[in-house]
Write a structure and sequence with these properties.
The chain is an alpha+beta fold. It has helices at 6-19, 32-39, 43-55, 82-86, 91-98, 117-123, 154-157, 175-181, 200-206, and strands spanning 59-62, 66-69, 76-81, 103-114, 130-140, 143-153, 186-197, 213-223, 228-237, 241-246. The chain has a 6-stranded antiparallel sheet with strand order 4-5-6-9-8-7. Strands 1-2 form a two-stranded antiparallel sheet. Strands 3-10 form a two-stranded parallel ribbon. The radius of gyration is 22 Å and the shape is elongated.
Length: 251
Amino acid sequence: MREQPPYLRIADALQERIASGEWAPGDRLPSRAQLARELGVGDNVVRRAQELLILQGALEGRAGSGTFVAEPRQRLRLVRSRAREDRGGSPFQADMTSLGRRGTWESRTDAKVPAPADIAARLGIAEGDLCVRTSYEYFADGKPIQLSTSWEPYALTAGTIIVLPEGGPLAGAGVVGRMAEIGITVSHFTEQPEPRQVSDEEASLLGVQRGSLVTHIRRTYIADDGRAVETADIVLPAGLCELVYEVPITP
């Protein structure tokens, strides 16, 4: 019989100590060096065991703080649908309200940012054309749950009251509502989801372990005249969010 890899044995040992109540949710684990000495293995074995338990949701890595026993977190079921957009306002806020959660976000907007090649292609503009870029961090009941970077052609909104997505009288109204204010009707959106590993910066912002999986969605809003009016990269921790697509059937 093939011997169990050392990191799996250590993962089981750590799980047993959590199950026994030695470490409660929210407790910080001893350092890797200390655990390695206690368990008679190398630091790398403890690291792999902890990374496995983080991916499984039993532990939580916090950049600069250490590894903690994870608080029980329900996986959020997020519905992506046309009806969700038609309601207006912030789609994220609508998601959180439907789940009985308190949805909040922080944002930073930079105006007149040259469009990188991939963003320009998605917006149908020339590389280097100016855009309004807004970076978002979203929270469910105060815990990080989603990241997003939005790009809008500066030429589209320059000189209007909606040029800053999170400023002015329509702050936080959502792309559909804001564009309607300047006479642009958003008719549909496209989304391209794909799994990938989290980047180091994303892991720090989301409070997840480096190397864990996220769902990366490339979303683009399109007006009724065919123009792309906004595109965004949305990042969701795969272990915390379940995506469901609701597609209407037209008779």
